[in-house]
């Protein structure tokens, strides 16, 4: 499932190592048979735009896009549980499921970080991979729509994931909700969040499900397993089409 691995790398924090493997990533996309011609073309356009940037500029833009505010968080449970206590327990449960599947992650890594999840899914057979992406299809569609609202080519990565999964999502409903949202990455919005969260009463922020100050990246020590689905939600539980913070 190389295409999912490639998308995970493109969605992760940009590094020189990523840029050095541009030719390999382009070849994976070109040879892939699971995506539509339009999705592949959009990925090519994303790579052409981003890989032509100065690395420091790309990294700065990445930080501004995904680490300012929560609407574009790359943490799955941010969009499912928000700041509720359920998020902390969901983290624990997902870590245990990763361990059961044979996936080892670092102590400071958050298991619901989308590139990490995609790297895991990339080791699976195509049917299971599609099923897992269907489980989070509403989150992918939500992020896709918000990125499109900002005219960001990163939207093409989420569109490709939805295209791969063949999930049926009511995009009109999600677009209607997103159109009514207020931006949460402005200085005013961020200041308001800081004011609300300035006082805490102990506990570990990561385990409590707090939004981290920096994105956690996958490690090279991750093992590869097959045919072991990761349940993002309990059976029968649905993901809301959108959330506002």
- Whole-number mean pLDDT: 78
- Computed structural class: mainly alpha
What's the story with the biggest beta sheet? none
User: Unreliable segments (pLDDT under 50, ≥5 consecutive)?
Assistant: 198-231, 233-245
Query: Helicity, in percent?
Result: 55-70%
Total helices: the number is 14
Rounded to an integer, what's the Rg over CA atoms? 17 Å
Give the terminus-to-terminus CA distance.
34 Å
State the gist of this model:
Helix content is 57%, strand content 0%.
Describe this structure in words.
This protein is mainly alpha-helical and 245 residues long. Helices cover 57% and strands 0% of the residues. It has helices at 2-11, 16-20, 22-31, 37-51, 55-66, 76-80, 85-101, 114-121, 126-135, 137-149, 155-165, 171-179, 187-197, 205-208. The protein is globular, with a radius of gyration of 17 Å. The chain starts with a helix and ends in a 37-residue tail after the last helix. The relative contact order is 0.18. The model is unreliable at 198-231 and 233-245 (pLDDT under 50).
Features:
single chain, 245 residues, mainly alpha, 14 helices, 0% strand
Layout of strands and helices, then pairs:
Elements: H1 2-11, H2 16-20, H3 22-31, H4 37-51, H5 55-66, H6 76-80, H7 85-101, H8 114-121, H9 126-135, H10 137-149, H11 155-165, H12 171-179, H13 187-197, H14 205-208
